[in-house]
């Protein structure tokens, strides 16, 4: 009976800590943030009354984008060479081959129209004292922007590996040293700080944190230099899956063995109780 009382007291304080103190501490260190928004409701809904014209989108892209950007799956190289781009902009602008697959369509339209606003970087680039490396195209009509997005979607591959999505979405800024993925070293100069290596981010932050952080970094780090990437839900899941594959490769194995470990512990508890009863029976 005495042992049961001790067990009851321990259980009571454990539950008070788990359901009382721990949630309070968690709410202080990890304030609640809204769930990931893959519709990007804060952005303008760029709509059009006409069907998107892919051919026109290709022409507009040729006129306005390939001066800086390559589109490798179309065999199009940027008109500016890499060193000149680095000298002028600080970085070599990314290839646009997969943009139509990994980015949410309305976000992509808004990014073309106003990249600073879409990326939530107004605190860093005010358009007066400091300018973002990509100009906005707010002078374009919604129909034209829609046509460009339609073009990007028409040329995008139908499928990418998790690693390929990570490289296109995150690999320009972040290293993944455990998988030998190296970031563009010139990005550091533009960002003003060195973006962290992400090899173990899944272990240190967890999947839930990454779901909201990737979708909108400002929710967790107000004023961070990291822009809102604008991935669609499928692409973001692939990024997180890749982070898990590299940083927590034993997760499946660990989860598979867990029932056996718990079963063994339960068996040992049972054996211990039998042993205790045997020992105390002799004392009596």
What does the secondary structure layout of this molecule look like, with pairings?
Elements lengths: L1 H28 L24 H11 L17 H8 L9 H4 L2 H9 L1 H4 L23 H14 L6 H8 L17 H5 L9 H4 L2 H9 L17 H15 L3 H33 L1
Helix pairs in contact: 2-7, 5-7, 8-12, 11-12
What do you see in this structure?
- The chain has 284 residues and is mainly alpha-helical.
- The chain has three domains: 31 residues; 215 residues, no CATH class; 27 residues.
- It is built from 13 helices and no strands.
- α2 packs across α7, α5 crosses α7 and α8 packs across α12.
- The chain starts with a helix and ends with a helix.
- The model has no long low-confidence stretch (mean pLDDT 90).
In short:
With about 280 residues, the chain is mainly alpha-helical. The chain is built from 13 helices and no strands.
């Amino acid at each position: 009976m005495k042992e049961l009382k001790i067990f009851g007291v321990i259980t009571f304080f454990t539950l008070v800590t788990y359901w009382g103190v721990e949630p309070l501490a968690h709410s202080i260190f990890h304030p609640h943030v809204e769930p990931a928004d893959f519709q990007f409701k804060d952005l303008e809904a760029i709509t059009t009354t006409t069907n998107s014209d892919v051919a026109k989108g290709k022409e507009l892209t040729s006129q306005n984008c390939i001066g800086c950007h390559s589109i490798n799956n179309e065999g199009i190289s940027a008109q500016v060479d890499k060193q000149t781009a680095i000298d002028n902009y600080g970085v070599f602008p990314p290839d646009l081959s997969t943009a139509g697959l990994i980015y949410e369509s309305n976000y992509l339209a808004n990014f073309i129209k106003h990249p600073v606003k879409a990326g939530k970087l107004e605190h860093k680039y005010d358009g007066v004292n400091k300018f973002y490396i990509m100009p906005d195209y707010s002078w374009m009509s919604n129909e034209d922007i829609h046509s460009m997005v339609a073009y990007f979607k028409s040329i995008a591959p139908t499928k990418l590996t998790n690693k390929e999505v990570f490289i296109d979405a995150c690999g320009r800024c972040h290293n993944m040293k455990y998988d030998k993925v190296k970031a563009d070293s010139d990005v550091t100069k533009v960002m003003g700080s060195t973006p962290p290596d992400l090899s173990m981010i899944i272990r240190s932050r967890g999947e839930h944190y990454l779901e909201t952080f990737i979708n909108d970094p400002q929710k967790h780090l107000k004023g961070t230099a990291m822009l809102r990437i604008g991935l669609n839900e499928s692409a973001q899941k692939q990024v997180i899956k890749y982070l898990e594959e590299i940083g927590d490769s034993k997760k499946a194995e660990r989860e598979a063995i867990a029932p056996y470990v718990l079963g063994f512990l339960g068996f040992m508890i049972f054996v211990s109780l039998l042993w205790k009863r045997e020992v105390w029976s002799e004392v009596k």
